[in-house]
Amino acid sequence: MINNSFLLFAQLIVLISGILKYDSGAFSGFSTCQSGNTQTYTINFNGVFGNVPQLILGLEKIDMGKGADFRIQAQNIQTTNFELQLNCVTSTPFYSAIFNWYAIDDQRIQVINNFNMENPDNQVFDHDNANAIFGILSITSMGIYHDVDFQISISSITTTQVTVSITKHNWWFVNLKQIGYQIILGIQEALTDVEILFHTSQYNSGLLTQYPNKWLFLSYNGFALNNNIRTRSVRTSMSESYIVETWYGTYINNYHLKSWIAYQFTTVFSAFECLTLRISQALDMEVQIKPKIFLEINEITQSFSSSTYLIIDKALNLLNMKIYMKCTKTKTIASQFLKCQSCSTKQYYKFSHYCHGTIDAVTYFPRFQLAQSFYKELNVNILVDRIIITQVLYNQVQSSETLLDIQVLNS
């Protein structure tokens, strides 16, 4: 059973103007389930979120017969509550489970759900945040029809994709008919002290190092068993330690995950700012053979005349650009370049250039600088008479900062 003092401690609530940013709790209200039975439970948050939060489930107790197939789906997540739906496929009973749940409204963490996958195999998933390159995996459901021996884990994470692999230790793997899991990705600060251990007997963690503003997260990554499953994690007061045990029968060998998940962050990602700018107006003798608008970025030795999406390496904190604009007679080119992201006024350098008979091209040479080292996501949008470059930022909320905007206007 979950320690009562832990349940009290686990109701972590942050109220900013009465709005939740994170919350947590535990649910153990499932009834015995089998033969197609479906149960749906509504779980209330301890307040109201400003946005629909991301939901993380940690499986801390499972009691089911060998041959049971239970399927869990988190659904209808709202700002005030969410639902857990349980469905049991086979006649072998599923008795009970305890899930610790964690809700967070922060884009520095990304949760990918793969609930109730039949015929389990390796999978590749796209993810949004280029800096969410740290991750853990949590099993949420299983269908075990006989003896099994498997481990499921994250095998690789890139700036755009995460790969999940299932280690198939022997022919028993065919008895794993269904598995569900969540992938929890985050920036480096999001996950601390991650440990996956294979337990063949009761495990006692001993006194744990405590991390402020982080949840202790426990779950399973696999099992090796030839018996009914009766395994659980039991926390001591204030999550100072925990044990992993089988409370009846032969010990259930298991791959167990321990991690700390941040619910408050000190890392704040900022946008490139224009450090210097040179502007050239010219009569270009080759104007007829050039694109109307094109962009060059020296550091990546690439040029673009159409819209594109870029991930700039975290080692590149200085970008020298060249933006070429054809200048049609009697028209005006208006431009702005981000000077100061955090300023409340005068955030941009702004310019206007009139196109007359001796000017048919305006070229901009901005140098953008950023002190932080992280992956930078840029959207380059090139239209018929306009170029806009924005940078996507994942902080508590996802935002888009305009680095430059250059447009040909009718005078």
Brief description of this entry?
This is H-type lectin domain-containing protein. It holds the Pfam family H_lectin. The chain is mainly β.
What does the model show?
The chain has 411 residues and is mostly beta strands. The chain has two domains: 259 residues, no CATH class; 138 residues, no CATH class. Helix content is 2%, strand content 58%. It has a six-stranded antiparallel sheet, with helices on one face. Strands 4-7-6-11-14-9 form a six-stranded antiparallel sheet, with no helix packed on it. A hairpin with a 3-residue loop joins strand 12 and strand 13. It is elongated and about 90 Å long. One of its GO terms (molecular function) is carbohydrate binding. InterPro entries: H-type_lectin_domain (IPR019019).
Q: What layout of secondary structure does this protein have?
A:
Elements: H1 4-10, E1 15-16, E2 19-20, E3 22-27, E4 38-44, E5 54-64, E6 69-75, E7 81-88, E8 94-104, E9 109-118, E10 123-126, E11 134-144, E12 148-157, E13 161-168, E14 176-186, E15 191-199, E16 203-204, E17 214-225, E18 229-235, E19 242-246, E20 253-262, E21 273-282, E22 293-297, E23 302-304, E24 308-312, E25 318-326, E26 331-338, E27 348-354, E28 361-369, E29 376-382, E30 386-394, E31 398-410
Antiparallel strand pairs: 1-2, 3-8, 4-7, 5-8, 5-18, 6-7, 6-11, 9-14, 10-13, 11-14, 12-13, 12-17, 15-20, 16-19, 17-20, 18-19, 21-28, 22-23, 22-25, 24-29, 25-28, 26-27, 26-31, 29-30, 30-31
